[in-house]
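Much of what follows relies on a compact textual record of a protein's fold. With that in mind, consider the following protein and its fold in C-alpha cell form.
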Amino acid sequence: MTEYRPQTALPSVFLDREDVKIAVAAHDFGTVFRLARSELGISYSKIAAECDIKPERVGLLARGRGNITSFEKVASISDALRIPGRLLGLAARGWETNESSCTASCASPDANTATSEGGTVKRRHFFRATAGAGMAVGFSDLDRIVVGRQIGHSIPSQLRRRTTRLRRLDDVLGGGDTYRIYLGEYQATKRMARECDYSERTGRELLSVLAEQAQQAGWAAFDGGKHADASGLYEESYRAATEAGDTALAGNALAFLAYQKSDGSREAGVEFAVRSCRTAGTDAPRGVRALLHERLAWAHALAGQPRETAEALDAAEAALNDDDGEPQPDWAAWVDQTEIKIMTGRCWAELRRPLRAVPVLEEALRDYDDTHARDKSLYLSWLADSYLSAGEIEQAAAVTGRALDLCAGVASVRPRSRLAPVLARLGEHRDLGAVADVLERAKS
C-alpha cells in the first residue's frame, strides 16, 4: 500500500533554500507558509487542513502575527509539510525512511547556534518553540548529573547551574510545556536527597536547590492551570527552604502562595505577602527585596488599598536602587526597572487609575520583546483594561487584538483568563467595528 503523501509536502529543493532553512530552524512557520503559497502555489486552506490549524490562524502567522510554541503543533507541521524532524529539533518522524537524504545542512545544531552557510540563527530564536518538545530539544547540551551513593560538596552547585539554565525556558514558553520538565528535575533532586549520603553542609545546600526547583515547578503548574499542584509545590518549597535556612527562598515561596491566595481571599493574599517580606528580611539581596515588595504591592492592589500599594511599590524601587554590588540569585535577577514599571502599571490598572496606569505601561511595553509572548500578552491585557476605564474604547480594542495575537498557541491558561473580563467589557461596545472585529477574532 502506498504511503499517504500530503499535497502540502515541501520539495527538498525548496527546503534547501537558505531563507527557508533559516525560517524552519527558527520555527518561523509564518514565513514558511507565506513562501509555500507564493512560490509553490500551496494555499493556506490546504496548509490549515493538513496541519489541523484554523485557516485564519495560518493567515495571521503568514502576516507575522503570533507564533507556534506547542510541541504537538510543531510535530503536525513537520508531518504535513514533510519537514525532516532534525531540521526542527525533533526526532526523526515516522515517514522519514531515508536518513542519508539529509545533507550536512540538516545536521543538529550545536550547543549555541543553529547554522547555515547563509547565516546564523541565534539559539534563543531556535528554541523559541522547540524547547517545549522536552528537555533534549534546545537544551540538549545539558549534562545529566550522575551521582553515586555518596554526594560530594560540588553536586548542589551543579544542580543549581542546571536549574538556572532550564529556567530560561520560561522566558519563551508557557507552563503547559515546561511543567513536566521542571517537575522531573525537582523529583530527581528529591530522590537524590532521600537516597544518598552527604555531609550536613551539602544537605542544607541540597535542600536549598530543592526549594528553588519546587518553586520553578510550582510556577509552571500555576501558569498551566494546575493550581492544586502549584500550591503543594510552593508549600514543599517553603518547608525545604526553612530547613535549609534559606530565608530568601522561604520568603519567595510565601510570595508565590500569596499570589495564589489572592484569587480566593484578598486579605489572605496580603497576609502572606507581608509575611514573605518579613521572612526574607532586610538583609536579603536587593533583587529579592524588590521582587517581594512588588508582589506585596500587587496583593494590596487586589485588596483595593491604594496607599499601601504605593508604599510597597516605593519599597520595591528603593530596594532595586540599593546597589551594594552583592551578587543576586538567578531566580530574582530578572527583576529590573522595566519589571517594576510593569508591576506599577498593573497595580494602578487594578485600582482603576487609568491616568497612572496607561503611561507607565505604554513606556514599559514599547520595547518589550514579542518573543516573551505570554508575559507581553498578559501585560497588554492590563493596558487594554485601563484604556477601557479611560473610555478609549477603540484603543482598548486595538491593544486587546495585539494581546490575542501574541498569546495564540502559548501553553499558558493565564493570558486568555486575563483577557476574558476585558473582552466582556468590550462586549458592551460591540456596535463599534473595531470592537466587533476583536470579539470575532477572540472566538477562533
